[in-house]
Amino acid sequence: MIRKMICGAGALGTSLFAATAAWAQDAAATAAAAVATAAPTPEATEAATTLIKAPTAEQMVGMVNKGDTAWMLVCAALVLMMSVPALALFYGGLVRTKNMLSVLMQVLTIVSVAALVWVCWGYSMAFTSGSEFVGGFSKAFLVGVDATTYAATFSNNVYLPELVFVVFQMTFACITPALIVGAFAERVKFTPLIIFVVLWLTCIYFPMAHMVWYWAGPDFLVDAPTDYGMLWGWGALDFAGGTVVHINAGIAGLVGCIMIGKRTGYGKEATPPHSLTMTMIGASLLWIGWFGFNAGSNLEANAVTAVAFINTFVATAAAAVSWSIVEKLHHGKPSLLGAATGAVAGLVAITPAAGFGAPGTSIVLGLIVSPICYLFVSTIKNKLKYDDTLDVFGVHCIGGIVGAIGTGIMAAPSLGGQGVFDYTVFPAGFDADSYDMGKQVFVQIKAVLFTLVFSGVGSAILFFIVDKIFGLRPAEEAEREGLDLSEHGERAYNY
């Protein structure tokens, strides 16, 4: 994604991306041995390190790596798998039998509609120049985007075919609104929901993506120093979607579940998950797909990709274990539902920090996020009496907040983090000593608060409008019958 990250050009040296000091020392030793062995001539060295500022489209052709392209297409498929079938199965298993099919239908349709909206106007609103709040419509319906246009990465003189970038970002636009429906599952009408999703993507998601992830690129920012989104300009770090995806969707879910109201019989009738087997399958597929989500957000296949990959792995594992321990201490027994929920909380928390932190700090983040999310899911929700059906707020919003703020700490080179590159110079510069942890944490908190207010207020307005015009809540009789039959006229199971 076009976002402020730390992926520099290969010519700047891959040792800059080492995840810990020990790794950096090993990389330096290896590099020194390679230099001594190869002993390149001064002419060869100069040719290898010559970078082109503001390259033309013709020059970009030679700056595309087939390995990067193949990796990004695989990642796009992995992220799509996170929505269908992973999220659909994860959510579907958690609802009652009479609502299983409705959840599957909601997720599948949201993904389909979001993909079309993205191509029609979403990509242009998110990733073209405009204001610091939102892009324009110069690439609406992908006008001017074809096999001969290219998208920047985070390295000088490294590009992707633009259509690869379009399809990768499309999958993020598909899953984010699908996350929201878990907050008011079992009590929302289908057609008004889809209308809300189109409005929410247009008014909330696309502007957020622009504000956090849009910038001119490492080869052009020097000549266009104000061509970026607002939060990017603040210096907010979001590797793969802590603010844009999880906090954004989580707070929208909370607003939605409050405005739509509690399920009929909530607190009086038992509402157990109908199939934890389905939930386990969904959670497992989410974990696998999340490697495309996080490691793919590096936009290249290099050392930082590996950093994001391993951090995603260990943070998730730590969070699953941590949740199980908390349940054991609190209830005396660890549950499969708890372990799966903890894994998702870990995936959420590591998302903004995946390419910035080190494995050690990622494990700590995973261990910390589960008890915090558990508190919201098991205690705070009951005390405040809101019916967040599948704990979208408690896991995605709260986990995203923990991860987003934690990113400011984890990125510190003093803790083995990656630091940040300075893209205001060409070629991009790097100075580990310039990283200010306190300042960065402040910026991260500022970004979190902005996202909560922007998405919370904006979502409330959209829910209100759609409810007044179309009505979001089904009749009590339809809700008791189940949305499978009342909304879709079919059942998930016929045995």
UniProtKB/TrEMBL annotation:
InterPro entries with a match to the protein in the record: Ammonium/urea_transptr, Ammonium_transpt, Ammonium_transpt_CS, NH4_transpt_AmtB-like_dom
Range of residues in the leader sequence: 1-24
Highest taxon, organism lineage: Bacteria
Gene3D superfamilies: Ammonium transporter AmtB like domains
One Pfam match: Ammonium_transp
Ammonium transporter AmtB-like domain location: 70-493
Protein's membrane topology: Multi-pass membrane protein
Localization of this protein: Cell membrane; Membrane
Family under the similarity heading: Belongs to the ammonia transporter channel (TC 1.A.11.2) family.
Designated name of the protein: Ammonium transporter
Taxonomy of the source species: Bacteria, Pseudomonadati, Pseudomonadota, Alphaproteobacteria, Sphingomonadales
